[in-house]
Specification:
Layout (H helix, E strand, L loop, with lengths): L3 H13 L3 H8 L4 H6 L16 E5 H4 L8 H8 L2 H17 L7 E5 L7 H13 L4 E5 L15 E4 L10 H11 L17 E5 L1 E4 L2
Parallel strand pairs: 1-2, 2-3, 3-5, 4-6
Helix pairs in contact: 7-8
């Protein structure tokens, strides 16, 4: 009689035998944390997550919450400089490893402000270069009542929406400063593919 362990192994082998694009589509239905975790299944799965169609960076998946933290202390950490630095590092590292050709969704979910604008500009440019369909910048994902703060909202440059101005300087900086590669620009590498745009605690500027 075939045991359950053998059945699971056979099923895994059948799934692993699927083409990369199908496996990446399946992984893109998971959270980023879950998708990255599949890299330990086998050598076949090790790098598949790097081609995800959806990149949603949710703070609760990226940052560690100590069991001893009260809810107040947890959100206090979230608004602190150390956790913010860690979050930015993680986003940059994932983008550095990304090998996909197209993004369906790209989301930043962290209470960032204008002080992180130099990074956010580059992340938005990255999403544009990969012809993102859904872009979400949620800079107020936490209950504000837990931590008092006085910051200036991030302003997204409207020049990013303007084909005539282009995003080449941002992409050059991504490449030279952060070693983050993007597809070659062409007429489609703007916001023509964008279907959904969600902005929270974001301002618009022509600068």
């Amino acid at each position: 009689m075939i045991n359950q362990g053998y059945k699971r192994m056979v099923l895994e082998d059948k799934i692993s035998g699927l083409p990369d694009d199908i496996l990446v589509t399946i992984l893109s239905l998971l959270t980023l944390k879950e998708a990255v975790a599949t890299s330990i299944i086998s050598r076949r799965w090790q790098y598949l997550w790097r081609s995800l169609y959806n990149l949603n960076f949710r703070y609760e998946e990226i940052l560690h919450r100590n069991d001893s933290y009260t809810e107040y202390n947890w959100y206090r950490k979230i608004y602190g400089a150390d956790y913010m630095h860690t979050y930015i590092q993680v986003v940059n590292q994932v983008l550095r490893l990304h090998k996909g050709l197209k993004l369906h969704e790209f989301g930043i979910h962290y209470p960032l402000d204008a002080s992180a604008g130099c990074y956010i500009d580059l992340w938005v440019a990255f999403a544009i270069a990969f012809r993102v369909s859904k872009l979400e910048l949620n800079f107020l994902p936490c209950p504000v009542s837990y931590w008092a703060f006085d910051t200036k909202n991030y302003s997204i440059p409207l020049t990013l929406f303007d084909r005539s101005k282009g995003i080449e300087p941002y992409l050059v900086q991504l490449d030279r400063v952060f070693s983050i590669r993007t597809p070659p620009l062409n007429v489609d590498n703007r916001f023509e593919c964008l279907k959904e745009l969600f902005l929270k605690s974001v301002e618009l500027t022509f600068a």
